[in-house]
UniProtKB/TrEMBL annotation:
Residues 8-90 form the PTS EIIB type-1 domain. This is PTS beta-glucoside transporter subunit EIIBCA. It comes from Cellulomonas soli. SUPFAM superfamilies: Duplicated hybrid motif, Glucose permease domain IIB. It comes from the Bacteria. Signal peptide: none annotated. It is a multi-pass membrane protein. PANTHER family: PHOSPHOTRANSFERASE SYSTEM TRANSPORT PROTEIN, PTS SYSTEM ARBUTIN-, CELLOBIOSE-, AND SALICIN-SPECIFIC EIIBC COMPONENT-RELATED. The active site is at C30 (phosphocysteine intermediate). It is found in: Cell membrane. Pfam families: PTS_EIIA_1, PTS_EIIB, PTS_EIIC.
Length: 628
């Protein structure tokens, strides 16, 4: 009961912070993230979501508001979707790529973990057979292998269920369609030339002409079929909508599935299946062709950028190709370099754990290194450690590139769908050169670890720890305990004269404004960026001071146009560091005021904020005094 209430609490807090149930258009999840489609993004408080206990970070990509939870995401998702008004699935907004990725994730993620678990079981069996080849001839092995392999052979059944949910089709009819496809390769139903009963696939493979109403059928294998199943269920969903309009309610319950099965199954055999097989085989052949030209380059690209793909959710675009490869040839060359990419991150995370002096960061890095190394779950480590510090993430990408190139050069690939990790490395034992896989992966870990330990990173100070002194962009260097510098060059304007009641009333805090003469905004003090928007930056200093630099009035409506941010949320900035560049003329031409506001939203220990400058100022010239 206590565990359930914990996930309920996280779900409640996240739901409230994203704007409530009414603001959630739909939600789904992947291995570590809740993926929200929001009705109104402005109603979501990103800082509040990230401050929620149990939330690692928030990422906005692919038209989604993604809340990174970690390995317990499924529990939080289940709690979220128990709300009557929260829709579990939905189409993504944005471009074609965003919608395609959203489609793939919504279909594959519900059974991702059981797919990974079955793949891990196959990998462990491979180790046992290597150690004792005779074990492969036992019935014990056969039963365990059936447990591990059945899911991949009968994958269309799972795809039918999730696709039906996505396309809003009848799930049981979808399963019947997928079962018919599998039936063609597993159940003897037609006599061959010798009179023996064989499967439809065996009948066609034996050289006899398979037809439907006189039309020749090009029979392909539907075991493990991905694309044919998804397209067949989509066609089913469209036909069902039409039939439900045609048939009266009294006949609809049995006439709709009757006609759907009678039409969609033959159409799949005649059209959808052959076309899908051609497309899938083309994608697989394309990957193999590219690998044939230069496996080293292919491996280096996948090793270097796989974790970047994960950050933006683009990695899901590779899943259908991998599954297609697995179904046609038993392995996918795309998977070989991924072990180096993933485990290099683990090496960098562990180095941060050893090197950082920050207690909180060390507490995140330790468990994250273990989950990344053993299970291949890197999101907690990426968002909580390496990407936050930047340099360790880059070091890991370098290690992944080198290791991925070595692994790919030996033709290494995984048998089965597995999450790349130390445990599942055994899935690559039988494909390509396993020694090169081990060398590449080990070198990737070593490179990421050594670079992080030797070249280092800018550590996160413990709370209350003094920040190092920093130079300014111009003028005197302010002490953040006593004064703040001008965020932009230009003419000082009293806060009361700002044509925006929220600022001029002092409701958000005391400060001043500057009419900018140059399109560059700088940090008025050293600290951590707790808010980063294209036009606004919130800084929390080490002394507890909280400062907001807001470039332009109502410029949030520009959606980032005319702004080029130079920092990201969570960064540590030093006084005088460039925050953003902006186009003053463009902002004015769009009908907005570029006046830049500097306010102290939390004075900390100071009793008052006093403006100390007027007229023209340079960036970082002292403009606000904090009275103790």
């Amino acid at each position: 009961m206590a565990t359930a209430s914990k996930y309920d609490q996280i779900a409640d807090d996240v739901l409230k912070a994203v704007g409530g149930e009414s603001n959630v258009k739909s939600v789904t999840h992947c291995a570590t993230r809740l993926r929200f489609q929001l009705n109104d993004r402005s109603k979501a408080d990103k800082d509040a979501v990230e401050a929620t206990r149990g939330v690692i970070t928030v990422v906005e990509a692919g038209g989604q508001f993604q809340v990174v939870i970690g390995s317990t995401v499924a529990n939080v998702y289940e709690s979220l979707t128990s709300r009557a008004s929260v829709t579990a699935e939905g189409g993504a907004s944005g471009g074609l790529l965003a919608r395609a990725i959203d489609l793939i994730t919504s279909i594959f993620t519900p059974f991702l973990w059981v797919l990974a678990g079955a793949g891990l079981l196959k990998a462990l069996l491979a180790v046992v057979v290597k150690a004792d080849p005779a074990f492969a001839t036992t019935s014990t092995y056969a039963i365990w292998f059936a447990a591990a392999d059945a899911l991949f052979q009968f994958l269309p059944i799972l795809l039918a269920i999730t696709s039906a949910k996505r396309f809003k089709a009848n799930q049981f009819t979808s399963v019947a369609i997928a079962a018919a496809l599998i039936y063609s390769a597993t159940i003897a139903v037609i006599p061959n030339a010798e009179g023996a009963s064989v499967t439809l696939q065996a009948y066609a493979s034996g050289g006899q002409q398979l037809t439907f109403l006189g039309v020749p059928v090009i029979m392909v294998s539907y075991l493990s079929a991905v694309i044919p199943t998804i397209l067949a269920v989509y066609a089913q969903s469209q036909l069902e909508r039409l039939l439900n309009k045609v048939f009266p309610e009294a006949l609809r319950n049995f006439f709709t599935p009757l006609f759907t099965l009678a039409i969609i199954v033959p159409v799949t055999f005649l059209v959808i299946g052959p076309i899908s097989d051609w497309v899938g085989s083309g994608l697989s052949s394309g990957v193999n062709w590219f690998w044939g030209l230069s496996p080293i380059i292919g491996g280096a690209i996948m090793g270097a950028f796989w974790q970047v793909f994960v950050i933006f959710g683009v990695h899901w675009g590779f899943v259908p190709v991998m599954v297609q490869d697995l179904s046609t040839q038993g392995y996918s060359l795309l998977t070989g370099p991924l072990f180096a990419a993933v485990l290099a991150q683990a090496g960098a995370i562990f180095a941060v754990f050893l090197k950082t002096k920050n207690r909180d960061l060390k507490g995140v890095a330790g468990p994250a290194a273990i989950s990344a190394f053993l299970a291949g779950i890197t999101e907690p480590g990426i968002y909580g450690v390496t990407l936050r510090l930047k340099k360790p993430f880059i070091y890991a990408c370098i290690g992944g590139a080198v290791g991925g190139a070595i692994a790919a050069s030996g033709g290494s690939a995984a048998e089965g769908f597995v999450l790349p990790g130390a445990i599942t490395l055994t899935s690559t034992m039988n494909i390509g050169n396993f020694t090169l896989q081990l060398v590449g992966t080990g070198l990737a870990i070593a490179i990421a670890f050594v670079l992080t330990m030797t070249l280092g990173f800018k550590d996160v100070p413990n709370k209350g720890q003094e920040a190092p002194a920093a130079g300014a962009a111009g003028g005197a260097v302010p002490s953040e305990a006593l004064a703040l510098g001008a965020p932009v060059a230009g003419e000082i304007v009293p806060l009361s004269a700002v044509p925006d009641k929220v600022f001029s009333s002092g409701a958000m805090g005391d400060g001043l404004a500057v009419i900018p003469s140059e399109g560059k905004a700088y940090a008025p003090a050293s600290g951590v960026l707790v808010t980063v928007m294209p036009h606004a930056f919130g800084i929390r200093t080490d002394t507890g001071l909280e400062v907001l630099v807001h470039v332009g009035l109502d410029t949030v409506e520009l959606g980032g146009k005319f702004f080029t941010s130079k920092v990201t949320q969570g960064d540590r900035v030093e006084s005088g560091q460039l925050l953003t560049e902006f186009d003053i003329a463009g902002i004015k031409a769009a009908g907005f005021n570029p006046m830049t506001v500097l306010i102290v939203t939390n004075r900390g220990a100071a009793s008052a904020v006093v403006p100390v400058a007027e007229g023209q100022v340079r960036p970082q010239e002292l403009v606000l005094d904090l009275v103790g």
